[in-house]
């Protein structure tokens, strides 16, 4: 199995569960509160490690208690912290998550994640060059994402860009990455010139891998639209499902699996992940994923 390098965000999630999501000016009584490791980059790194890959995380935390929690969690999960930077006078990134009415709402405060810059990437250049797959997201500066994409294009290293939180992206970045993995909302936010998602999938065959929640994933293979289904499960918490998909999708690609099969592995992993609380709480091991993939894959 190859090596996965994740360049991205690390944070602590402050998770509240509630029967109802408050509207502006309203106070509601919640059911529970949890403090758990999170951040899209960290979640994807843990998902890949849980699925059996060797993972290097390139990121930053504050010199504070939450930063210690993030680094300790990486070590427990088998994710290398060699390229994690501790930043003084900056707090560790925080995500405030409300789980209510079968879905989640998230407010992200980047903190030290804004310090994931070119100089930090330069420290990890050899690891990136030797990677089987590099994972990127948008909770770190866009300049850093562009820089990593440039390096990977030069070195012919496959790149998965999970474009979240959604923003309009330079088309040159879309062209340079190997796979773009948005949901439908993110897809429309990235390409504001095109409200027709199917036209976008046709414009970027085998590149835009569109996540559609419980319906699974859809893409255009050059000849036809392909849907890869998710599992039917009892949903507890959808936080981190997309990150689980991306991490395991990367692992499957690093093993040399064909695109459709690699996507199925990611879909199964994401489905299993939502059956437990927390972004990382339900991330499955590869052995469990294989049990549910299906003979046709």
From TrEMBL:
UniProt pathway: Carbohydrate metabolism; D-ribose degradation; D-ribose 5-phosphate from beta-D-ribopyranose: step 2/2
GO process terms (BP): D-ribose catabolic process
InterPro entries the UniProt entry points to: PfkB_dom (IPR011611), Ribo/fructo_kinase (IPR002139), Ribokinase (IPR011877), Ribokinase-like (IPR029056)
Domain Carbohydrate kinase PfkB: 1-285
Family matches, as Pfam families: PfkB (PF00294)
Binding annotation for substrate: 11-13, 39-43, 139, 243
Enzyme class: transferase
Cofactor remark: Requires a divalent cation, most likely magnesium in vivo, as an electrophilic catalyst to aid phosphoryl group transfer. It is the chelate of the metal and the nucleotide that is the actual substrate.
Gene Ontology cellular component list: cytosol
GO molecular function: ATP binding; metal ion binding; ribokinase activity
Active site as annotated: 243
Family statement drawn from the similarity comment of this UniProt entry: Belongs to the carbohydrate kinase PfkB family. Ribokinase subfamily.
Cofactor: Mg(2+)
Organism of derivation: Polycladomyces abyssicola
Chain's role: Catalyzes the phosphorylation of ribose at O-5 in a reaction requiring ATP and magnesium. The resulting D-ribose-5-phosphate can then be used either for sythesis of nucleotides, histidine, and tryptophan, or as a component of the pentose phosphate pathway.
Regulation: Activated by a monovalent cation that binds near, but not in, the active site. The most likely occupant of the site in vivo is potassium. Ion binding induces a conformational change that may alter substrate affinity.
Subunit structure: Homodimer.
Protein EC: 2.7.1.15
Alphabetized UniProt keyword annotations: ATP-binding, Carbohydrate metabolism, Cytoplasm, Kinase, Magnesium, Metal-binding, Nucleotide-binding, Potassium, Transferase
Sites where the protein binds K(+): 237, 239, 273, 276, 278
Protein name: Ribokinase
Compartments reported by the entry: Cytoplasm
Reaction catalyzed: D-ribose + ATP = D-ribose 5-phosphate + ADP + H(+)
Binding of ATP, residues: 183, 211-216, 242-243
């Amino acid at each position: 199995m190859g090596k996965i390098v994740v360049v991205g965000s690390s944070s602590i999630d402050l998770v509240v569960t509630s029967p109802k999501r408050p509207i502006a000016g309203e106070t509601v009584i919640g059911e529970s509160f949890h403090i758990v490791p999170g951040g899209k980059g960290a979640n994807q790194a843990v998902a890949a490690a849980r699925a059996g890959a060797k993972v290097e995380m390139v990121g930053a935390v504050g010199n504070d208690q939450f930063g210690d929690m993030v680094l300790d969690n990486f070590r427990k999960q088998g994710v290398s912290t060699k390229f994690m930077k501790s930043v003084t006078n900056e707090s560790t990134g925080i995500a405030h998550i409300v789980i209510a009415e079968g879905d989640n709402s998230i407010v992200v405060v980047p903190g030290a994640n804004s310090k994931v810059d070119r100089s930090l990437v330069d420290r990890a250049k050899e690891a990136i060059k030797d990677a089987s797959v590099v994972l990127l997201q948008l909770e770190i500066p866009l300049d850093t994402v562009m820089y990593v994409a440039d390096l990977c294009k030069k070195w012919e290293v496959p790149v998965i860009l999970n474009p979240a939180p959604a923003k309009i992206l330079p088309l040159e970045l879309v062209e340079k990455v190997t796979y773009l993995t948005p949901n439908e909302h993110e897809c429309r936010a990235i390409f504001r010139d095109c409200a027709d998602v199917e036209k976008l999938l046709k414009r970027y065959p085998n590149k835009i891998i569109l996540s559609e929640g419980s319906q699974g994933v859809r893409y255009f293979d050059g000849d036809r639209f392909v849907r890869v289904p998710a599992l039917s499960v009892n949903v507890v918490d959808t936080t981190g499902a997309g990150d689980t998909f991306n991490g395991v999708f990367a692992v499957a690609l690093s093993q040399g699996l064909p695109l459709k099969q690699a996507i199925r592995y990611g879909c199964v992993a994401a489905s299993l992940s939502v059956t437990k609380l927390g972004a990382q709480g339900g991330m499955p091991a590869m052995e469990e994923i294989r049990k549910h993939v299906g003979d046709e894959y």
